[in-house]
Design goal:
Blueprint lengths: L1 E6 L9 E7 L6 E2 L4 E6 L4 E5 L4 E6 L6 E3 L3 E7 L55 H10 L17 H9 L25 H15 L2 E9 L1 H12 L10 H15 L5 E4 L4 E4 L5 E7 L2 E3 L2 E2 L7 H16 L13 E5 L18 E5 L3 E7 L2 E15 L5 H16 L7
Parallel strand pairs: 12-15, 15-16
Antiparallel strand pairs: 1-8, 2-4, 2-7, 3-6, 4-5, 6-8, 9-18, 10-11, 12-13, 12-14, 16-18, 17-18
Helix pairs in contact: 5-6, 5-7
Length: 416
Amino acid sequence: MGIYAFKLPDIGEGVVEGEVVEWMVAVGDTVTEDQPILSVMTDKATVEIPSPVNGVVVKRVGDVGDILPVGAMCIEFEVEGEGNASAAEADAPAPEPEAAPAAAPAPAPAPAPVAAAPPAPVTPRVPGLRPLASPAVRMSAREAGVDLTSVGGSGPAGRITRADLEAHIAGGGAVASSGPARTRRTGTTEIKVAGLRRRIADGMTASYSTIPHFSYFEEVDVTELEALRQHLNANREEGQPKLTYLPFIMLGLAKALGEHPICNAHYEDDRLTVVRHEAVHLGIATQTERGLYVPVVQHVEALDIWDAARQMSEVVTATRDGKATSAQLSGSTFTITSLGAMGGLGATPIINKPEVGILGVHKAIDRAVVKNGQVVVRRMMNFSSSFDHRVVDGWDGAMLVQRLKTLLEHPATIFM
């Protein structure tokens, strides 16, 4: 038998390290060639590493959350034949047995019983007056669900003592009827920040600590857009996706960004350079069971409304199913984060670095507004946006949002 030492392989161009997300085998497990043994996250994607051999796991390197460099040994197998490494070192000597505990001292003789003092007389409580008790006794009564108005007090002026409360509970006294007993909770749960959650934490920290954000809020009347959306959905052809608001917002943004290119850019800190993009690649922030991802719809400027809806659905579905490729999860030039399902009046979205802007979309609801001097009910939607103030002046960010507002309030102009 021999030892086969397996090193973390090169798992992508430019990838120099990976974070351990999950071990799929334990020491002592028998594995077969190509069986998944380890899940590793890189800056580009999460990948499963298969076993290169048949054998028995004898050693693992790295816990969940640890960073392993490419080329570092991560697991050892015992295999038939010589293997590719020297035999493992002998096991460390077993720890010396603990010394036998000293004999316990003989128990002290039990004290002579003392005659119990006669119970203090209980003072009847005057109806309508708040019962007298110390804060500690009141807290104990709340925890036990006891109504102190039903407890007699033996202390001065009828004050309820702890002994009075305990005697009341032991005697099956009345429980407070104001609601369920309130119990203090003292437990804690530790959750290691690892995998995607750590990537999100690192990314958000880098974005917020290096980018001077400024935010801008606006409300948009989407009444006419809603009528157009319903009309197109009612007359769509077989195979065409059902339209939500997002495809219209995507096309409107593509047009507005073309007119305000400073907002469709990356800021490269290391080179102190702003790179403006002609192509509009929109990231769609997507919540999954594994955390937040940002799949990308490429070249929105070249799509019609149906293609925009179809491609958005494809990349979002692939992301939620864990099947998105690294190409589908990178390359965005501007990001949309939809808060529509939860509503809310506003937010301060954090920019998806190295982009310079992000748009938050809130739930469309019917509200009473003043239009032409009359109070009418209109379909309204709030926008929350953030921009990188190193690159985008307040005027430029506001103009982008105002241009998008105009396009959505007169939706025919999106397609002109």
